[in-house]
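Here is this case:
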Amino acid sequence: MSAADPFGTEALRASVVTAWASSPTRFREDANAEEDLYLGGYRDRLLVELAQNAADAAGQRGTLRVDLVDGELRAANTGAPLDADGVAALASLRASAKGPSQGVGQFGVGFAAVLAVTDAPRVVTAAAGVAFSAERTRAELSAYPDLATRADERGGRVPVLRLVWPTTGEAPPEGFATEVRLPLRAGVDGDALLADFAAQAEDVLLALPGLDRIEVGGRAWWREDGDRVRVHGPDGVADWVVHRVFGVLPDEVVAQLGVEARERPEWSVSWAARVDADGVPLPLPEGVLHAPTPTDERLSLPARLIATLPIEPSRRRLRPGPAADAVLAAAARAYPALVGQVAPEHRTALVPVIGFPLSEVDDKLRELVLARLRQAVWLPAAGDAEPRLLAPARATVLDAEGAGLADLVCSVLPDVAAGFLSARQHTAALAALEVTRRGLGDVVEAITGVARPPSWWHALYSALAPVVETDATARTELGALPVPLADGRTLPGPAGSIVVDDPELLDLLTRAEVGALRVVHAEAAHPVLERLGARLGGPVDLLDAGGLQDAVERSLDDVESGVDSPGLVPVVLRLVRDAGVRPGERAWLGALALPDSVGDWRRADELMLPGSPLLDLLDEDAPVGVLSAELATEWPDHVLSALGVLDAFALVDDDAPTGPDHGLADEAQWWDARAEPPTRVLAVRDLDLVTDDAWPRALALLAAEPDTWRALLAPDGHTGWWIARNALLGGHPPTHWRLPAATDLDGLYDVVPDLGLDPRVLAAIGVRAELAVHTAEDAEDLLIRLGDPDRALHPGAVLRTHAALAEAIEDFDPADVRLPENTRTLSGTVAPDCVVLDAPWPLAVLGEDQVVSAGPDFALAEPLAELLDLELATEVLDAEVVSVGEPVAWSELGAVAAACELLGVEPPLGSAVVHDKLVVRTDTGDHPTSWWVTEDGVPHCEDTPEALARALAWTTDRWDQRHLLTALIEEPSHYLT
């Protein structure tokens, strides 16, 4: 070598030209290979190749500067300057000057990328440089006609990078070792090249650790290594989490490589994930595999892979084989370490999610990475203790969000992942990792039967609150959520439990151990329980809880069986007091077992308060005891009365009765006696225990209390109904008597003895206040009294009574009435055999002591006859008119016509038979009368105003106007006066 040609370029040219001249196909092979490289594999990789050469030259912390100067693209780099081996590599399409310890070869085949923009590249150093030129190569070939012909056949295109010449007089910028100078071919946009280079600068710095600064067109990017890799640029700073590993291929893999590749068995893998200032991974745009320069192998992973992988000569595709498999497997093994560098709450952002692969390499690499991530220990575990990591393959994630829930149940469920991983943004990543998910139903099953303090359960409910509030499905799954109770038990599910916010009451319930009450423990109480079926309640809710009623109703059996329930009585009394329960409001409270005065136990409603006025009213054999004095002193009377303990008469009040099931005397009989079932039962209890001689005092006691007063006066109520049939006043039932004011019953009923009672009370219990017939019993009683010859009755009273009996016959069955032997007649006498007067004219031939009458309303005669089992007068009377009369049309009777006109009615059709003297003959003889109606309905009358008026009134169905008609016929002026 000479000083003018320090790199021995003349020998290199001679060797190449000789080879071309001696082998006609070698020229074509070199030309084609070079075209394939810069037209195919390197057409858009100029910056990357220049940067790779710069990084190889620098070793570490190198700088690359790219700029446009006088139409040339110039790329200067620091590090080792160009040497002879490098020049030989530049002039070889199939070899590289890179040694075993270097990355992709320095100034190797990648230099062909420059041909995409130039036909005359130069490489200069401070000492010397080399140049390539398509024009000089064509000139060199002109001395060889055969080669010149071959170049002409290719349109003048010749291999540019095979013939190299020395250059002098040029040097790189100060501070740089080497500069590549590329005179741009016509049509190449230099500014566009710089803009494209600027867009690639950040990726190049990540891909090439030996290069830490790139300058493009006056703008600079530089890398700062640390816990994060920071790439500074004109537009700001980009943070990256980077993990790099290095290794050597296994011998069995190396043995399958080419000769030169065997000399370089080392590999390196770098994973890089872009993060924000807080360390949160940022989504990457669709990327490619870097090997270590970009390839065409598209990747969908959330991190960038830069690895020394074998690639095809085009440098666009991965070369499949054992070496590629080994490096990809190593990359997958390294990936969990990259994930581990991210804060635990953001790690799933780096998990490749399931999706359509972008390439075969993407599919393979994603599966390898996921398989490693599943087995590696990197997923944060739940719990407040020292942080712990889990392998996803063994981890469990709860469906419900919230760190609190996971932290609580991790002591019960093994390997529970941190609660924040339940959030939706982690779902796809965890699904890709096949992490086991557990729903709230699984959580409930796991914690059922677990012993924990009530405060732990309260914390659990707090953790469940968000999902319970918003998710109806979750509320269903939590239906069996355990609930600690005040008495130490645990309830399988909130439904039916009660949350009590009264500390004093809660303390009593805790100590009483009344198993029937499902009261939530004070330290566990939480609003979430209400959303799941528990009730926030006080004394009323506890009384209505259902379980307490069962306990009360079996309490006497429990006591008699020796079952000790000392807490039940004070709990029930406290609840009754605080709930303000009124007597009779909850009839089941009467079943509570309480001690009596002799030490026995009885139902509450079978006890009386000491000193109760009822003690003097009830039969000595009544099944009622006296409450123990100790209990009576401890609790107010109104509380004990609410249980059914008797002080005054107990009351039953049911505003929605469904049947005669209230324990009242003869209740079913009263119920059946009503036309319609009662809509409310308001009644006094235990009336059947009153002694016969105590009824006046009993009634006074009933009238003195407002509640029993209302029961007494209730229309059709049980109390009045029962007393009317069973009480005794003056030795007789109340219905035996009448009120002093009921004068229309004089003679029928005696006045009730003076008991000092309100007339309304007396009327309510059956003392007669008016003439009324409602039942067969009423009718029977009246008929007996009517038939009693010792009773002096006014005629009007008799008529009114018979009328009332006839009118009431529709209310009962006459067959149910037992008839007395005698019947009261119209004359006031009694007779065993008589008829019912059903028309007025038979009285002309019958005596008043032979007939029974219901008064002037003869329509009542037939029902009265049915009730009395008597015949009607007109049906049994055998009579005929024996006097002679003259038929006269009603309209021709002047006085009759005038009377009808005055009344504004038409005279009746037909005729009346007018007699001077009218005589009717019966089996008793001839009877003179003023008018008569024969069996065929023909009226007969004497020619007198009175007779004409009665016949006219009967014929026109105006019997109640007979006296007016008499006056009008006799003197029409009576109409005006």
About this structure: The first strand starts at residue 62 and ends at 69.
